Amino acid sequence: MNVLRRSNGLIDTPRLRKAIGDWVEEKRVEAAKDIDRVKDTYRKRAAVIGFRCGVIFHLLSGCTHESKVCLDFALMMAEYCLAQQIKAFGEALQSQYLDGNKAAKNKSNKTVFELLPPVFTMDDLRALKNGVCGEVSLRKIISRWLNDGLVSKTDLKHWEKV
To answer: What is the pLDDT along the chain (162 residues), one digit of tens a residue?
Structure first.
């Protein structure tokens, strides 16, 4: 415990920053595919917690560089925190996003993206979202998919999965 008390100043952990950065980006893409605003919100918090756990692990290990075990521990903690935050607060946050609507959750194991046909329209996406998303939100979803390279525009009203 004295090791932590004596530690001060900048603790540079480039490998840990990269590992957590890659993890949080992976979760962002997952959340975008699933159109899961809860996961998108809590992934950021979980990444910060996982990073802090990794820094503490690194300090207690006494190593000069972050070890693979340190990185694995930080990622495990981030994953655990994300799962527990979604379990504890996900439903309440989702209901906030739905503005009080008691819309039923999609029980399918498939993501909205996977449920779309190979070539789809805005109407196809709107139907899968059951009217939960407005026009601006639907356009933002497709824009993110375009930026992530998941779809390409075929004409004015159609997109194709890549």
So the answer is: 688 888 877 888 999 999 999 999 999 999 999 888 899 999 999 999 999 999 999 999 988 889 999 999 999 999 999 999 999 988 888 777 665 444 444 444 468 888 899 999 998 888 888 767 788 888 899 999 999 899 999 999 999 999
Q: Cα dihedral sign for 152, 135, 43, 117?
A: negative
> Measured over all CA atoms, what is the biggest interatomic distance in the chain, rounded to whole angstroms?
64
- Calculate the CA dihedral of residues 91, 96, 99, 104 and round it to 10 degrees: -10
Any idea of the CA torsion for 49, 50, 55, 58, to the nearest 10 degrees? 150
Which H helix or E strand runs over 132?
Answer: none
C-alpha dihedral over 152, 154, 157, 160, to 10 degrees?
-50
Separation of alpha carbons 76 and 83, rounded Å? 11
Q: Mapped to the 3 state alphabet, what secondary structure does 73-88 carry?
A: HHHHHHHHHHHHHHHH
Helix (H, G, I), strand (E, B) or coil at 39: helix
